[in-house]
Recover the amino acids of this structure.
């Protein structure tokens, strides 16, 4: 009986792994969270300015992690990462949006004096 022996270390995803990329993504996330904490606690900004800063920092951290951890690119071996992200992002926004919508109207229907 012949069996096919595959070496898991030759898989393209394993070969593209890099400790430096994982460390860089971790450091980027920690730095972005630290700056967001400082902006929230340490500065006397308006609510819209604080929200803008936090949103920008979250986008930077998210994009950094997409490229460094999730290896988002259009190469032939990793195209499925991009496809899965494109299919997941709308579902995420639908879930968040529908949850906000549901709780908004739930509060109007259940709170006395609405």
């Amino acid at each position: 009986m012949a069996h096919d022996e595959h070496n898991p270390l030759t898989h393209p995803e394993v070969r593209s792994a890099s400790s430096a990329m994982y460390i860089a993504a971790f450091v980027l996330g920690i730095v972005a969270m630290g700056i967001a904490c400082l902006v929230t606690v340490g500065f006397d900004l308006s609510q819209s300015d604080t929200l803008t800063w936090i949103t920008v920092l979250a986008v930077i951290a998210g994009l950094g992690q997409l490229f460094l951890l999730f290896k988002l690119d259009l190469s032939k071996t990793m195209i499925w990462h991009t496809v899965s992200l494109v299919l997941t992002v709308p579902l995420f926004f639908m879930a968040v949006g529908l949850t906000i919508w549901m709780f908004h109207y739930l509060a109007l229907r259940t709170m006395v004096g609405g």
Q: What stands out?
A: The helical segments are 12-15, 19-42, 47-68, 79-110. The chain has a mean pLDDT of 86. The two ends are 74 Å apart (CA to CA).
